[in-house]
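Hi all, posting the design record for the shared folder.

TITLE: backbone redesign
STEP: 1 of 1
STRUCTURE INPUT:
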């Protein structure tokens, strides 16, 4: 089953490679999370906590790169990551798009995603508010 992936940094955002990262405001973060709740309300989605944000895995019946890019942009995916995937798709390297790393080596050691279904994630988020 095809998957659309979103890498949402909850702390900061860069719009172009080489740009200085700017902090994401609480309002921007809220908008991203409300959009996530809307999109994942009627489909199978998983949300995974990362060091600085979340990874979202959205299962779909049919994969369409143009629709995937639009959805990823709507859900506040990393704009640089989107540009890289568009470039890869234009070159026919479809096997290399939608890539997220589930485990990373950091200065503190190994960092691994912690995943739950989107409903559980959003219910817990509301509970903590």
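Okay, here is what came back for every position:
SEQUENCE:
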């Amino acid at each position: 089953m095809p998957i659309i992936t979103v890498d949402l940094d909850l702390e900061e955002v860069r719009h172009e490679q080489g740009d200085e990262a700017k902090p994401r405001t609480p309002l921007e973060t809220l908008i991203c999370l409300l959009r996530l709740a809307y999109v994942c309300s009627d489909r199978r989605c998983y949300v995974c906590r990362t060091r600085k944000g979340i990874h979202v895995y959205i299962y779909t019946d049919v994969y369409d790169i143009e629709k995937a890019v639009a959805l990823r942009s709507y859900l506040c995916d990393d704009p640089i990551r989107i540009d890289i995937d568009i470039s890869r798709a234009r070159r026919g390297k479809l096997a290399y798009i939608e890539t997220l790393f589930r485990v990373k080596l950091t200065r503190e050691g190994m960092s691994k995603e912690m995943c739950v279904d989107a409903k559980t994630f959003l219910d817990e988020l509301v509970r903590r508010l």
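COMMENT: The helical segments are 26-39, 65-74, 79-90, 118-128.
Let me know if anyone wants the other runs.
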